[in-house]
Design brief:
This protein is of the alpha+beta class. It has a domain of 139 residues: Glutaredoxin, CATH 3.40.30.10. The protein has five helices and eight strands, in the order ααββββαβαβββα. The protein has an eight-stranded mixed β-sheet, covered by helices on one side. About 3% of the residues have low confidence.
Amino acid sequence: MSSEPDKKSPNQFKKAVWEWGIILGIFGILYITGLHTEVIGGLQRVLLSTGILRPDTEVDPGETRKANYNMPLITLDGDRTSLSEFEGKTIFLNFWATWCPPCIAEMPNIQKLYDQLEDEEKVVFVMLSLDEDPEKARAYMDRKEFTMPVYFLAGRQPGVYNSTVVPTTYVISPEGDIVVEKRGMAKYNTDEFRNFLLSL
């Protein structure tokens, strides 16, 4: 019995090269067209659906920080405003970008949360896009038919919101305390989190 490893025939080798060529070609097309972000985001959405990644709603008053409302913003329509416009309300502040797969993964469940709280005057959503080109954010929101309000920074970002992770979500209480700081994606559209926002 021969102990030599099996050698692939020329036809098997050509087949393997052809298969890998197709796989790499698909990945190349996804990358060039920018669809790889949505594909990866879709895969991460499956993880989110398990409910494992959730924001912590247990607030320790000794560990909260004061929010900084001095953050100038621009709306998708080019209107100037500021985070200070929402002072006294519960603010769901989410830093996201169209080039960020985890952001793409969590956006549908944030939209569902927004749909349920849209008529609540004391809760506002500030979806702060980090895209350099506002038109990319607009095109993404239009394509997905998302209706959450999108803003862009129009000045200096206060240090209290500095995070190297995208997405990062902050919840600011009406009293001006940052009661949630979630770095990375999470499932927000839950009864627990919705009731938490309404209870602030």
